[in-house]
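Annotated sample (chain length 603).
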Amino acid sequence: MSKADLHVHSCFSSRPSEWFLQRLGTKESYTDPETIYREARKRGMDFVTITDHNEIAGSILLKEKYPEHVFTGVEVTTYFPEDGCKIHLLVYDLTEAHHAEINNARTDIYQLRSYIKEQNLAHSVAHATFSINKKLTISHIERLFLLFDNFEGINGSISRLGNRILVDALSELSPEIIDDLYCKYRINPYSDTPWIKGLTGGSDDHSGLFIARTYTSNKGATPETFIERIKNKDAIPGGRHNDYQGLAFAIYKVAYDFSKSKSATFFPSLFNSVNDLIFEQKSLGLKDRLLLKRMKFSKDAKENGFKRILVDLIGILQQKRDIPIETKLGMVYEKISDIADHFFKRLISELEIDLRHADIIGLAQRISGSFPAVFLFIPFLTTINILNESRITLNDLADTYGISKQTKKRRVLCFTDMIKGIDGFTPLPLLNKLGLTDHEQSGFFLVTCLGDEPAQKIFRVKTLNLPSIYTYRPAFLNSCPVNVPSTLRSLKMIYEAAPDEIHLLTPGPVGILGLLSARLLHVPCNTTYHIDFAHQVKQIVGDASICRVVECFTRWFYSLTDTVYVQTEHDIDDLELRGYKREKMARLAREDFTGMPTFQEIA
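Output written by the structure step:
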């Protein structure tokens, strides 16, 4: 079987789609065509192409130099004229004349399809379930089913879920379904057997990190026969899918390449050394080795956790330059997690002092001063969001084509900060409300942060115990320590748990992380209002300014959820007077709160 990565970008691609790179003013890629050819061949590809956005210059350069191993390619940006929904279409083995005509037709996907079909050009719809400009719906995907015959079965830059649901939906197509779609949209199918779709695979690499990690296989022995088998829907996709860490590091790599292309770098010298070790397997120069040695044994490094972690990372990368990139990136993520934990632990300890002394001004200053450090891990948050933006469309596609029954059971994660006073806690009424009556066999997990305590000794349900970085005891919760979870490590655990819904029981650090996760993963987020924190703080602490802070915070927290469950109609009336939206609130019977801790039980 011959192989080719059918989706790769080079330095001929211009404007990036990620907002982080747009803000920096980078190009979409800095990988030169020769590097793509060399890396693809080294990683087992028999044939090579480049698919820059609306540009074929890079692939033509390679084809002229290596005609026996290269065919041309392009990623065409096209639009549904009805609403401007943007679609990317990969086209192969085209000439400059083809490219000129495609550029003229691409503003209208129907005209583009007519030209592709008329010229019998090999094609594949790129990442068909990914919403490029936030307009994609199942209606657009169904029209694509009629318009084209080849789809990316594995796009190496989107999630396994997005790839899998598309392939499952394509496998469900039948002559009857195609007839129904024709009656619905009045679009003539691409071929005589439109229910049979061809599948391709490509890395969609922009950074040079993942070239040829995703690919297409078929029995074509020459570029011409390889292309002909794609036209005949005779190919198999293979290789890696993406996750948020891979996408974040790809963004870092493009930013790093941009930095090298400028005369004045925006990365400090030490960070450039780290980047060289991560992305280019370079060894440290004499100057950097001396700097590293001085830092390692300096008093400043011993006292400064950030520098200590950075020095440790450089030392590890220097010793293990030849390890696979996936392993290397995993190590770097762990160290970035350490840095984030160190920062938040220090910040929270200072905030606790401000709260204890009712220093509202100091509290506000520390929170606002923390924003620059947050940018260290912002790309990881944005990439989780990017990979899950099409979640609603994916759910619609799965439901419409009967895929939901074939997938895992619905998984609900229930987040709580409160752990003392609820030994043996099982929120059975809540589980029943969520449709998870057989919770032992369902996808229900209680998510909390216990520190060193073993979760199975406290709860009678499956528990996801997040790693703790800090423990504090608010004055009004003397018997109940509150643990702060590690941000990046916890997000990784929650991401891998792949929840379909998130439910919040408390607005503490664990609840806030649950809220953040729900928004990044684009899943429903509901909460249960069973403790009036602002009222209780007023009774115990008595400080009006602190009470106002708690009231504003809890109102903000609950406002970001989809539904707030309360016990009585009186609760709804009271909360509405305090600024909560009535339409967001729903009643659970008082007995449905059985097993949930009250404030009096934990204070």
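Annotation: The longest strand covers residues 73-79.
Annotation: The chain is about 45% helix and 15% strand.
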